Amino acid sequence: MTQEEMIKEIEAAFKGVTREGGVSWSETRVIDDYGSTAERTAARAQDQDKTWMEVGLDPNWRIDMGVGGFVFLDQIGFRYYLAAGMVAVIRGASSWPIEFQLSPDPTATPENPNKRCAALSEPQRVCVKHFIKHMIQATNNTNYETDWKKLYDSYWKQVPELSRKQRRKRDR
Length: 172
Known about the structure:
The protein contains 9 helices and no strands. By secondary structure, the protein is mostly helical.
C-alpha cells in the first residue's frame, strides 16, 4: 500500500471524527503539569483546528512533545489525534508515540487490549491494523521493523478484516 492509499484509508475510517467533548492537544500539557480547570479550558481554546486531518498535515504539530501528548488524552481525544498521528507518521513524523500508544496495556485482556482504543469502531481498528502493516513495510530492513512486527503480533493481527459490505459502507 502506498502512502497516499494509506492516508485515504485513514480518511475513510475516521471520517467525521471530532474531538468535541474530549481532551485537546494543548490541554494535555496543562494536565501533565497538574493545571487547574480554568487553565485546561484556556489551553483547549488555543487549539483552533477544525479536523484531525488539519492537525495531521500541520508540519508544526509536535507528535513527540516532551510534555503532555497521547498519554493524557481521553478516548475521544485519542481517536481524533490517533488519526492525525497516523497521517503525520506516514508523512515523516516520529513514530514512537503512536507505536507506544497502540501497544497493549499491562492490564490488557484479549477483549480489551488497550483502553484508549476502546472507542475505535471496527473499521477504525482495521485501519490501525493496516497502518501497522504499512509501517512494517515502510521500515523494512531497519531496527524499527522488528518493533512494528512485535506490535502487530501483540494484538493487531487478530483484528478481523472488514467484509465487502462493511468496506463499501466505510468508503461512502
